[in-house]
Specification:
Structural class: alpha/beta
Strand content: 5-15%
CATH architecture of the largest domain: 3-Layer(aba) Sandwich
Strand order of the largest sheet: 4-10-9-8-7-5-6
Shape: globular
Number of strands: 15
Radius of gyration: 22 Å
Bound molecules: D-serine
Helix content: 40-55%
Number of domains: 2
Largest sheet: 7 strands, mixed
CATH superfamily of the largest domain: Type I PLP-dependent aspartate aminotransferase-like (Major domain)
CATH class of the largest domain: Alpha Beta
Number of helices: 16
CATH topology of the largest domain: Aspartate Aminotransferase, domain 2
Distance between the termini: 28 Å
């Protein structure tokens, strides 16, 4: 039983995976937090590393048999240190939310004041939003974007920071289409004595590839997932200077987690190695170029883009002028082979589960090698669908054209079918 191939051991799950592989191949995946992990990363994640327990850190574990695991983890750490130019990396957080929780645990006690960007402005749940543990266990102060241009309101950040003196100031976002000015955040954090944490989950691949300014030298602590633009496994990491090394390590283990997921650690090491290549640098820049071209294509079809465009991997559309709710548009686009997610826009009068916006991005389609020409086609397809969401004939014709396009661009990590 334990040695049966998946197809024999569990045909139902095998079928789900085969169908998901087909879906990921046949559709344009536009959710900005998703990507295709590199093939080598996928191999590492499904390897025997899964079988090993390794609580602790290299050279100081609570289990024997770490001859190979220590090497894997040390490689991941050394590569990340070199890639990002930091003193230390912790590669054990299970994902981005646990990484951020570990950061709070390292520096704060329940009830302490923390500060981050509010979810409705594009911040992440873990940056102090009220339903998250970060909003419930801490006195969370939330800053936002300006009403007129939807850019981060630095006057508000500064005045809230001066008033509330947070222990930790988070910058970074989950639905913000512009560059993050880490230097400005650092100036404010310094003035009020806060530790600046840059959550670069969405943009770590862009930072690694030089397509977004780095927070290193500005933020004392940097948290990230490893599976978005970084194109690694589902995981998390925390980068920091020497001063915070032991607080961060202790917060992750034994503070928050047990044994690290060693297959993931290997995947992070591989992703870091691949991110050092010229090919990855070109990829990171191509993500941004594609996002700009797609934004222009959408603007030329009358879409209202939050902040008026994009200079990272992500585009946020306010569909109010198209008179279509975000969810209806996202569902019609999915039927047409384009998978985005409905999302609130700043100052959204609608509810989060039925918001006015659509969030999309270019990391996954750029991983398939698509470029400006494909972005212009995509912009037109999206406009055709959103302007006629009930026209199933049109939607099914476009789904066919999308599939034809996808057949021309192999998806990394998905074997030929
Ligand atoms: N907030 C998720 C996203 O950006 O899709 C990640 O946690």
């Amino acid at each position: 039983m334990a040695d049966l191939p998946l197809i024999e051991a569990d045909p139902e799950i095998a079928q789900c995976i085969a169908e998901e592989q087909k879906r990921q191949h046949d559709k344009l995946r536009l959710i900005p937090s998703e990507n295709y992990a590199s093939r080598a990363v996928m191999e590492a994640c499904g390897s025997v590393l899964n079988n090993k327990y390794s609580e602790g850190y290299a050279g100081k574990r609570y289990y024997e048999g770490q001859q190979n695991i220590d090497t894997v983890e040390k490689l991941a750490i050394e590569r990340l240190k070199r890639l990002f130019g930091v003193d230390h990396a912790n590669v054990q957080p299970y994902s981005g939310s646990p990484a951020n929780l570990a950061v709070y645990f390292a520096f704060c006690k329940p009830g302490d004041t923390i500060m981050g960007m509010g979810l409705p402005s594009g911040g992440h749940l873990t940056h102090g939003w009220k339903v998250s543990i970060s909003g419930k266990y801490f006195n969370a102060i939330q800053y936002g974007v300006r009403r007129d241009d939807h850019l981060i309101d630095f006057d508000q950040v500064a005045s809230l920071a001066r008033e509330h003196k947070p222990k930790v100031l988070f910058c970074g976002a989950t639905a913000y289409p512009r560059l993050i000015d880490f230097a400005k955040f650092a100036e404010i954090a310094r003035e009020v004595g806060a530790i600046l944490v840059a959550d670069i989950a969405h943009i770590s691949g862009l930072v690694a590839g030089g397509a977004h300014p780095s927070p290193v030298g500005h933020a004392e602590v940097i948290s990230s997932t490893t599976h978005k633009t970084f194109r690694g496994p589902r995981g998390g990491m925390i980068l920091c200077n020497e001063e915070h090394r032991s607080a961060i390590d202790r917060a992750v283990f034994p503070g928050l987690q047990g044994g690290p997921h060693n297959g993931t650690t290997a995947g992070i090491a591989i992703a870091a190695k691949l991110a050092m290549t010229d090919e990855f640098k070109a990829y990171a820049h191509a993500i941004v170029d594609n996002s700009r071209v797609l934004a222009d294509a959408l603007l030329s079809r009358g879409f209202d883009l939050v902040t008026g465009g994009s200079d990272n991997h992500l585009i946020l559309i306010d569909l109010t002028n198209k008179d279509v709710p975000g969810k209806v548009a996202a569902q019609a686009l999915d039927r047409a082979g384009m998978v985005a997610n409905y999302n609130s826009v700043p100052f959204d009068p609608r509810k989060p589960f039925d918001p006015s916006g659509l969030r999309l991005g270019t990391p996954a389609i750029t991983s398939r090698g698509m470029g400006p020409e494909e972005m212009r086609r995509l912009g037109n397809w999206m406009a055709d669908v959103v302007e006629d969401v009930e026209n199933e004939q049109l939607i099914s014709r476009i789904a066919g054209e999308v599939k034809e396009l996808c057949d021309q661009f192999p998806a990394p990590g998905i074997s030929s079918r």
